[in-house]
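Field reference: "sequence" (input) and "structure" (output). Example, ABC transporter ATP-binding protein:
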Amino acid sequence: MTHLLSLRNVSKVFSLGTREVRAVDDVSLDVEEGECLAIVGESGSGKSTIANMILGIYPPSMGSISWRGDILPERRELRHRRAIQLVQQNPLSSLNPRRSVGASLRLALDVHGIGDRPHRRDRVGRLLEEVGLPADFISRSPAALSGGQRQRVAIARALACESDLVVLDEPTSALDVLVQARVLKLLAELRQKRNLTYVFITHDLSVVRNIADRVAVFEKGRLLELSPTEIIFADPQHPYTRRLIGAVPVVTGEEVALRDRLMENENAGA
């Protein structure tokens, strides 16, 4: 079986003066076409380094990353950059403040040579409509938009080139709870409509509970646990995963019971 994306024995080592830091340590995992794989962990767990290696920003120090069965080169070709896109954490810093919304969206089409000028202009309008923004946003600057609107523009930009895989690096952490829920709903709808594949990077398990198919739990650069989302929440195997779930805010009786059971198990093993 050919996976959309595969990491095999991937490590990343950074040199800090005379000291070496292993940010990612011997990680192997696959991403299947059409799924949402969440990579979760606290700060320093290696999840953002994994994202940067998938995007080609960092080359692996060891191991390999494959796309549709072929090993990705360190210097990514244009077709790879088109196929794998990024939505960053802070939409304000990810959008050029000197460019209008329309210019930011057209830039991706220009770089990849998609369509002629009239086609690109029409496509920008359709992209805005697809992410729930009116066409007159084309002329607005990023500073004139709310956080949620800017993140919708960032999502539209990632979709402009008909990408296959979108890496979402903490895409809702800078948003308030209500806007966060709306953006997550939009991502779920776009994934279904376009048959997109997501790698969702986050420190918050509660964010991915209703969007991810599988969850990969990282700590200190190592992959501790990888399971379907419902199994991660119902029967987490690693103590670190249990601690993460124990910190998730709960609102239903079933969730309260799960939290209490996890805490009892943690205390019993202490």
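The two ends are 42 Å apart (CA to CA).
The mean pLDDT is 90.
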